[in-house]
Amino acid sequence: MQFEISDHPAPRSAEQIQKVLADPGFGVNFTDHTAVIDWTDQDGWHNARVEPYGPITLDPAAAVLHYSQEVFEGMKAYLHSDGSIYTFRPHANAARMNKSARRMALPELDEHDFVASLEQLVTADKAWVPGGEGEALYLRPFMFATEAFLGVRAAKEVSYRVIASPAGNYFGGELKPVRIWVSRDYVRAAPGGTGEAKTGGNYAGSLVAQQQAAEKGCQQVLFLDPLHENAVEELGGMNVFLVTNDGRLLTPELTGTILEGITRSSVIQLAKDRGLTVEERRITLDEWDQGVRNGQITEAFACGTAAVITPIGELVDGEHSIASTGTGEVTQALREELLGIQTGTVEDRHGWLHRLA
Q: Which keywords does the record carry (predicted)?
């Protein structure tokens, strides 16, 4: 697919970009361009282009506004020491987006066109990629139904887009353990639902629980399996791992209600490379609690594209809390290796990197 490039008529100056990059935050500043591909049931995917970033004009009856027919992805572009820009496992993101699209009755996009859209956007806006420690250009591919109608059926007109935002550390500042609130009032997903799809409705449904967490002084919320009491599922936007004192790495199994994280699968591979035994299975809060108390569970961390790997310092369940050891050796080693691969300072022995510009 060939992309038509339309330069921004008034791009930000080098000085303005540097001001943003000096304190990028997360998801608050956006680059000058966006990549776009249109789809209709008659013409398929067409009209690929890179155009100036700006508001999207939608009919008030657009299906996405009424039936939440949309999916998205999250990934990062990293500036390497030689000035090149790489992303991490983009074909895995493309495959997951298509899996999400199938679940939400949206059209699948060819993986090569998905990756090409990233290449075209990053090439246009490569000046926006920050180079500080822990910083990257966050890429947000997304797809949504644009057809104007109020009947409940799959839309016949869809838009795929990519936007980009300079990003610092997700939780801000230096790496430090986070407090997690256990949600007893809400569940994230149920069997047969949309839990394994990366769709906005899952995140919207988690926000009230996230508000509860914030009220309790916690940075994230942990959701439980509604059919198996006290079984751990995932956080509002990250997967969970536990490290044991006998060389095992535990994480909840994928049952269709948990998002199959790209970072999750990468952590599993890197852990196996280090000789750790990885167990993907049902894990209960009781096992977590008892394991910490008797010393069998020595570390706990969460992972995802935005935060990479973040240690869990305390799990708060009502009046009860489960403490952790903070940033343990395994957590730190996996984080350093993963970030090293992404930023080009550690050998990419699995061929995960893809050059964008």
A: Amino-acid biosynthesis, Aminotransferase, Branched-chain amino acid biosynthesis, Pyridoxal phosphate, Transferase
Residue in the structure block whose two tokens are 């998205």: 72
Q: Is position 357 within any domain?
A: no
Please report the pLDDT score of residue 173 as a whole number: 58
Q: Are residues 155 and 263 in the same domain?
A: no
User: Does residue 150 contact residue 61 with C-beta atoms inside 8 Å?
Assistant: yes
Its pTM stands at 0.95
- Note whether 99 and 233 are same-domain residues: no
- Whether residues 185 and 155 fall in one domain: no
| C-alpha of 357 from chain center | 22
Q: Is residue 314 part of a domain?
A: yes
Q: Which of 168, 198, 231 is the last residue of a domain?
A: 168
**Do residue 205 and residue 139 come from a single domain?**
no
CB 128 within 8 A of CB 166: yes
How many folded domains does the chain comprise? 2
- What's the CA gap between 341 and 272, in Å, rounded? 16
d(CA 3, CA 121): 10
Domain extent at residue 209: 178-343
280: tokens are 């993907």
Question: Which residues touch 24 (CB under 8 Å, ≥6 apart)?
Answer: 130, 135, 165, 166, 167, 168
Angle at 93 between CA 45 and CA 335, to 5 degrees: 160
pLDDT (tens digit per residue) in 288-345: 999 999 999 999 999 999 889 999 999 999 989 988 767 899 999 999 999 999 999 9
| Residue whose entry in the numeric block shows the structure tokens 């108390």 | 293
CATH number of the domain at 192, please.
Answer: 3.20.10.10
